[in-house]
């Protein structure tokens, strides 16, 4: 099965909110900028950015602010609430892609034939899905992604991805952010069916998991 690689926020694809894009970074010496000083601090920061967050998501973040982690069961429960919210608004059940580290991403769906050119419907759906994401899962998703794929809390997706790949032994220790950016750019501009040689093996589930945790969306096609 072919995989389309999209390097952008999941929020832009599925209509979810933008919690992970509005995080304020803090300086961290030679390591560049960080999202926060710890996962506990990150959870507290996300709580402080509340704008339409539902009570269940707040409760999960409060738990993480104390324990310093989000359980896989709490993470899955947040996505389950997102699915329920979307269906309650009258849309088809979203399809989720699950990675080896537990991360879940909504896959794109096909518009009904009679709605394909209905701009009002498309805009309303985007607004509704955005509201569901903000209420149920966005902030929990951002925290869980950092927990499993960016534990050093790099504010830069590129730094986070390279760190994840190195820690998993999927690239040489000498691999640089510059190399990663060059390879990611080549993949982003590849023609349909074109194979791009990368230092990491895109067929390995662990590679996809690292990249998904750091700003990449993968669409099966």
Automatic annotation (TrEMBL):
<protein>
    <recommendedName>
        <fullName>Lipoprotein</fullName>
    </recommendedName>
</protein>
<keyword id="KW-0732">Signal</keyword>
<feature type="signal peptide">
    <location>
        <begin position="1"/>
        <end position="19"/>
    </location>
</feature>
